[in-house]
Amino acid sequence: MSLDTTPEQSQLGRASAYADRYDPALLFPLPRAPQRIEMGIDGPRLPFFGADLWTAFELSWLNPRGKPQLAIVHFTVPCETPNIIESKSFKLYLNSFNSSTFADAEAVRERLRADLAEALWRGSERAGSVGVKLLAPAQFAAERVAELEGLDLDRLDVDCTDYQPRPELLRTVPGEPAVNETLASRLLKSNCRVTGQPDWGSVQISYSGAPIDQEGLLRYIVSFRNHNEFHEPCAERIFTDIWQRCAPTRLAVYCRYTRRGGLDINPFRTSWPQALPPNLRTARQ
Fold first, then answer.
1. Could you tell me the pTM of the whole model?
2. Where are the domains of the chain?
3. Which residues bind NADPH (predicted)?
4. Pick the catalytic residue: 199, 213, 241, 264?
5. What is the rounded distance in angstroms from the CA atom of residue 21 to the CA atom of residue 206?
6. Which parts are annotated binding residues?
7. In the predicted model, is pLDDT for residue 2 greater than 70?
8. What is the tens place of the pLDDT at every residue in 60-114?
9. 20 to 30 A Cα–Cα from 129, which one of 90, 216, 222, 250?
10. Do 228 and 192 contact (CB within 8 A), yes or no?
11. Do the two domains 7-142 and 151-270 of this chain adopt the same fold?
12. Under CATH, which architecture does the 7-142 domain have?
């Protein structure tokens, strides 16, 4: 069973009225499969593990006495879900909580978890869940800001002339011994697939294997600059291109994008099962 939905049918790029009452029907799932098929990823077996780490900074509701409550929310969406949630619909859905009454924060968390799980797994014979963690205002001070660790690729003084993805820029350094290396760049930028609005991000690449040519890798990252694609497939395209072109024995790609509409999206893909990275926002987020 497939979803009869496309990004063009969503609320992206349209004037939208904010719902003033809780409404789960606002969530607009988009299938992951079409863009994965474009990358040669077809079938139930994925070439990676991982999740999309979302942070919502604008969630509020009313307690039984009508007093507004608020929270920051961390969402963990497994990369195995057949769908993602279109981000504007996610924002409209979260704002529909604003004038609705819930018994307590746990009731809100359970409602979020149930609604998102239904939308993310909609159209699939499988069912699954999604991680939802609410942070109360008393916990806000513990939220950290940190940059992605790794050797800074942006230090390199390179000529950049390509602004659509160029996987042929990726290569390994011949004759060098294998390395375990983590590299990072703040120069990742792509555009929303529907509206063309810029999506600014940072990327961390950890791998084992023949050393990757760092200048070529940086130029490859920059080549996404005019590319129209959602955050999640951008991360998967980077993973797939490096995996195919450089043949590392292990690879992990972590992208952190700046927030829009109170939401940030941070995909993580890895070739081997491992713990998810900490959901620490960067300075630009």
1. 0.93
2. 7-142, 151-270
3. 87-88, 260-261
4. 199
5. 44
6. 85-88, 231-232, 260-261
7. no
8. 999 999 999 999 999 999 999 999 999 999 999 999 999 999 999 999 999 999 9
9. 250
10. yes
11. yes
12. 2-Layer Sandwich (3.30)
